[in-house]
């Protein structure tokens, strides 16, 4: 009698495994960011190396670059993940005004530090730091605009919707005084506030 084949993992098992993997990645990313930001605030960004950040986060330099492309990116703690096929299909299947769905889609692909207070202090001293995120945000703007145009059938509407959401995102990140616990809800609220001002 031959050995039994191992049972295939169920969908729920795979989902749980994927969820655990994502949580571990988020924890590692947060640990790297905390180490980078702490060192930068203590000594100044120019006096900090990737090796020191990696040692502070108890990871290898190779692992560091799996999470952030540079020490500036690690200090900012902002990452922009590309849209996947499943995300695109889900968004395109939506109906009506796309702004609310855009808020959720953006927040699910842009990771920001949970507590922004220390980061804001550093950026106030070194505003050029945010330039590091510029190319990533430009790429996701282009992607979101093309995707929204497919859903609405109108390029102008797509451009306005994406511009509104990205502007609201910038306002949310820069003006919130404490930690952002539910960024999607905060972003939607900021979008509504901007809309009310335009009336």
UniProtKB/TrEMBL annotation:
Annotated PROSITE patterns: HTH_TETR_2 (PS50977)
Boundaries of every HTH tetR-type domain copy: 26-86
Record feature DNA-binding region, as residue ranges: 49-68
Molecular function GO terms recorded: DNA-binding transcription factor activity; transcription cis-regulatory region binding
Source organism, top-level taxon: Bacteria
Keywords (A to Z) from UniProt: DNA-binding, Transcription, Transcription regulation
Gene3D superfamilies: Tetracycline Repressor, domain 2
InterPro entries: Homeodomain-like_sf (IPR009057), HTH-type_TetR-like_transc_reg (IPR050109), HTH_TetR (IPR001647)
Region (Disordered): 1-27
Compositional bias per record (Basic and acidic residues), positions renumbered to this chain: 12-21
Protein name: HTH tetR-type domain-containing protein
Source organism: Acidipropionibacterium acidipropionici
């Amino acid at each position: 009698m031959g050995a039994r084949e191992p049972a295939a993992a169920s969908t729920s098992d795979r989902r749980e495994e994927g969820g655990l993997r994502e949580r571990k990645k988020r924890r590692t990313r947060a640990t790297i960011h905390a180490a980078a930001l702490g060192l930068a605030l203590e000594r100044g960004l120019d006096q900090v190396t990737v090796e020191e950040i990696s040692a502070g986060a108890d990871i290898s330099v190779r692992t560091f670059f799996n999470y952030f492309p540079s020490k500036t990116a690690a200090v900012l703690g902002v990452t922009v993940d590309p849209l996947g096929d499943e995300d695109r299909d889900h968004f395109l299947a939506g109906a009506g005004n796309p702004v609310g769905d855009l808020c959720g889609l953006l927040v699910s692909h842009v990771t920001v530090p949970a507590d922004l207070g220390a980061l804001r202090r550093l950026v106030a001293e070194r505003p050029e730091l945010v330039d590091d995120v510029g190319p990533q945000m430009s790429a996701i703007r282009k992607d979101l605009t093309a995707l929204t145009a497919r859903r609405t059938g109108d390029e102008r509407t797509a451009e306005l919707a994406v511009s509104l959401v990205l502007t609201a995102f910038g306002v949310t990140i820069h003006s919130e005084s404490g930690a952002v616990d539910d960024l999607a809800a905060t972003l939607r609220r900021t979008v509504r506030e901007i809309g009310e001002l335009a009336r």
